[in-house]
Amino acid sequence: MTNDNIITTDVVIVGAGPCGLFAVFELGLLDIRAHLVDILPKVGGQCAELYPEKPIYDIPGFPVVTGQGLVDNLIEQIKPFGPTFHLNQMIQALEPTGTAEAPRFRVVTDAGTVFDTKTVLIAAGGGSFQPKKPPIPGIDAYEGKSGGGAGVFYAVRKMEAFRGRDVLIVGGGDSALDWTLNLQPIARRVTLMHRRDDFRAAPHSVEQMRALVASGQMDMKLGQVTGLRGEGATLEAAICRDAAGETFEIACDTLLPFFGLTMKLGPIADWGLNLNENLIPADTEKFETSTPGIFAIGDINTYPGKLKLILSGFHEAALAAQKVHRYVYPDKRLTFQYTTSSTSLQKKLGVA
Amino acid sequence: MHVRVVDREGEERELEALEGWRLMEIIRDWGLPIKAECGGACACATCHVYVAQDWVEKLHPPREDELDRLDEAYDVRPNSRLACQILFSPELDGLTVVLAPELA
Questions:
Q1: A6 secondary structure, DSSP code
Q2: Hey, what domains does chain A have and what are their CATH numbers?
Q3: Cα angle: A42, vertex A44, A47; to 5 degrees
Q4: Could you give the subunit structure recorded for this chain (chain A) (predicted)?
Q5: Distance (Å) from the C-alpha of residue B101 to the closest C-alpha of chain A?
Q6: B46-59: pLDDT as tens digits
Q7: Would you call B103 and A132 a contact, using CB atoms and an 8 Å cutoff?
Q8: Residues of chain A with a CB closer than 8 angstroms to some CB in chain B
Q9: Which residue of A has its CA nearest to B101?
């Protein structure tokens, strides 16, 4: 990575959920532009991933709004401030390069994006969404990673890696069906296994899969994986159980289990933030962590009296923005203004 | 009103249950290890429990969305349920459930 590719900015927001999005607004009013990083391919965090259709009743001013509805409104609200989103990425490393008075950080994502930023605002909620790992005994030994095996994968990065393999895909949702259809032409043999003969994936994918099974081009089995067999780190077969409790084996050198996503703290644990039960302690005046220049807002922080409510995260974003301003514009006086009366704020919002 | 919960180490506890609470909320509030990541939205399958055989028929059957979500749980059995979809009422006094294995 050469210096040309480094993004120099005032603030990197970790997480594009509701609190990260509203932080863009509060920072924007103070002339601070934000870059946001999120591991999901879409904006909105838990609201968009876990409960897009569910009604929320405790957002001030909205008697009822769905998770996705709230996200859509926030995106509309922050439009004037033109935030830059870096999706499908997770921050891997954070290294302080400044001082306590003038903080600076070098932040690197797993996709190779590098930021040189004055401040970092962590709004990472319950952590980053990552594929769930089924607790199959001995599965670690076969996981595709350096020093391990090359038989179990929780995501497909390069399809070519599966050419000529005997692939067992487990699951009944869109990920399982999509990868079944995509890998079927290049794998030696694809078997899809699901616990019941009812798939929640898109109906046309299910039809395509059933057609491939009918024409003998792939296999579909009903059951669940209970164990794995293979010498050392080389996977040879999955031990399975059907609905009647009978055990059977499926020969395979590759297993792709798709059990949905779970939230994991991830590399944030290594940033020296004195975590307390996987939460980041922050003060309640500016929501700064033990490291000057790093802030924590929303579900990921903790302080006496903390409530994990979206509305609390909004308040935290407003207060953190004030201190971020001090770091970004150390010589500028910050005057408190209302959007109702300040023509300066209204100009920033594009309404004056 | 009580619910009996067997944890993953096999230890059984009797927890006081409140009417109108979700079984998941009761288990979580008593501090037992149940992730319940989505907070009861039937969106994550991390409150998976096995219901004692003699109680299976006494519960309302799972809805379609609960069955769909159980696809993301591990070692699903005929008596598998998501604890967030069971609303506690006096008829459930004495219900016994076992915490299912967790996905990492």
A1: E
A2: 3-129+262-348 (3.50.50.60), 133-259 (3.50.50.60)
A3: 125
A4: Homodimer.
A5: 7
A6: 999 999 999 999 99
A7: yes
A8: 46, 50-51, 54, 126, 132-136, 171-173, 194-196, 198, 200, 224, 226, 259-260, 262-263
A9: A135
